[in-house]
Amino acid sequence: MSTVIKKGTIVAADRSYEADLLIEGETIAAIGKNLKGDKVIDAEGAVVMPGGIDPHTHLEMPFMGTTAAETWESGTFAALSGGTTMVVDFVIPGQKGMLAALAEWEGRATRQASSDYSYHMCVTGWSKQIFDEMPKVVERGINTFKHFMAYKGALMVNDDEMFASFQRCAALGALPLVHAENGDIVAALQQKYLAQGVTGPEAHAHSRPPEVEGEAANRAIMIADAAGVPVYIVHVSSEQAHEAIRRARQKGMRVYGEPLVQHLTLDEREYFHHSWDHAARRVMSPPFRDKSHQDSLWAGLAAGSLQVVATDHCAFTTEQKRMGVKDFTKIPNGTGGLEDRLSVLWTKGVETGRLTPNEFVALTSTNIARILNIYPRKGAIMPGADADVVVFDPKLSKTISASAQKSIIDYNVFEGVSVSGLPRYTLSRGEVVWSHGKNDQPRPGRGKFVERPPFPAVHKALSTWKELTAPRAVTRSPEHMPIGI
Ligand code: URP
Ligand code: ZN
Ligand code: ZN
């Protein structure tokens, strides 16, 4: 069975051109003029681009005494309806260990996912068990390990733990990811505001100022440099964190930065809204910032100092948010965005002239495919690539509303935002999984796990627990990840 996508403008990260696209089975077979196939998809007036990849989701994640309500089924359907054909979700090992937690995540994803998916593994402490499990995780096709510098007493790791894990990543050819906020300072500021009787969502923003993020981002970058490994900073929300990344890249360090579409478009005033529910629904870490930070992030995307736009989709219901009604530190942290990432970024980025369509594709798909070592299977429109394709129509428009979303959450942080640019069709490995105006849900469980091989390892000598725990001199090894993003 073949499909031809006709008369569209193919927009890739590097160029745009008019051509038809032939898909055979699950793969792009040819690009050219007047191609023929068993089935024809009309792309006239539309942009044909690689399916979006959201590298930052927390579907059904146990967190802060509850579990994120967005399921793998609803979350991946929401993703496909918005043009995202692959998500990368974070596995939290908890007390069970990495492999047991991975089995739990696999149980949920294989039954429910309708988009393709992969995982990042979280490192939430340091021990011989973690050291021993990391290579097994890499063998299972996971080449990224996430570290939380915040959430003290829960997920947070200290510098020595992070340094040990980063060195282990270097030896395994894996990339460390970091949530950069100084968890000690956040915990102290939280106590300060509670002691003053400031208990509402506005104190969430006050207790996590941009300096706390900038300090941690800089520290993570320096620790990565000492460990000889590149580093990827998730949910970059502030000029301070962006500055640390910019400076490091200027010095030749291989550092990547990922802003969220929420931080680019929503600001801290949300936390001062007269409705507690409204404000609490937007509580996430780092918090939304003022406009000057947004300008910095937009500039970084255009200049190349920031490479990826994600969502950190970690969605709780209003009822769950109300766990923190008397104490802002108990509001489950997280917001949604998976369904609306492409349309909001297109509207606020491309339509305004801040981003070119090619930059848009780079930021939503191609760059992260390269960083995660799955390019060109994913993130590319080229023969041999998986046929994950979005026929994106810049003339389709809507006003975002929870009442019409695929997400099962009872609100949407972009409620009332008008967007122009929506998927006319989304194809996942050649199958049409979303058609505008139809609303049909693809089969849960059709999504496939995408293996991500490790990068060439460095520091081979430091491959034993004994060597790693002994003091040593360190050097930077930028060849670890030989890509120029
Ligand atoms: O508030 C957030 N970001 N929740 C999800 C967990 C994380 O920090 O990424
Ligand atoms: Zn985080
Ligand atoms: Zn996250």
Q: Summarize the amount of helix as a percent range.
A: 25-40%
Low-confidence stretches: 472-480
Beta-strand fraction estimate: 15-25%
What structural class results from the helix and strand content?
A: alpha/beta
- What is the number of helices? 15
Task: Compute the number of strand runs.
Answer: 17
For the termini, the CA-CA separation is 36 Å
Bound molecules: N-(aminocarbonyl)-beta-alanine, zinc ion
Tell me the overall shape.
globular
Main beta-sheet annotation: 8 strands, mixed
Query: Averaged pLDDT, please?
Result: 95
Rg result: 21 Å
Secondary structure: elements and pairs:
Layout lengths: L1 E10 L4 E9 L2 E6 L6 E4 L4 E4 L1 E6 L4 E2 L2 E2 L4 H10 L2 E8 L6 H15 L3 E8 L4 H12 L4 E5 L10 H14 L2 E5 L3 H13 L6 H5 L3 H18 L3 E3 L5 H12 L4 E3 L3 H5 L10 H6 L9 H13 L14 H4 L19 H10 L6 H15 L17 E11 L18 E11 L2 E5 L29 H5 L16
Parallel strand pairs: 1-4, 1-5, 6-9, 9-10, 10-11, 11-12, 12-13, 13-14
Antiparallel strand pairs: 1-2, 2-3, 5-15, 7-8, 15-16, 16-17
Helix pairs in contact: 1-2, 3-4, 4-7, 7-8
Features:
485 residues; alpha/beta; single chain; 7-stranded parallel sheet; binds zinc ion; 8-stranded mixed sheet; binds N-(aminocarbonyl)-beta-alanine
Describe this structure in words.
Helices cover 32% and strands 21% of the residues. With 485 residues, the protein is an alpha/beta fold. The strands form 3 sheets. Strands 1, 2, 3, 4, 5, 15, 16 and 17 form an 8-stranded mixed β-sheet that branches. Strand 11, helix 4 and strand 12 (175-179) form a beta-alpha-beta unit. The chain is globular and about 65 Å long. Residues 472-480 have low confidence and may be disordered. Residues 58, 179, 235, 284-285, 312, 314, 333-334 line the site of N-(aminocarbonyl)-beta-alanine.
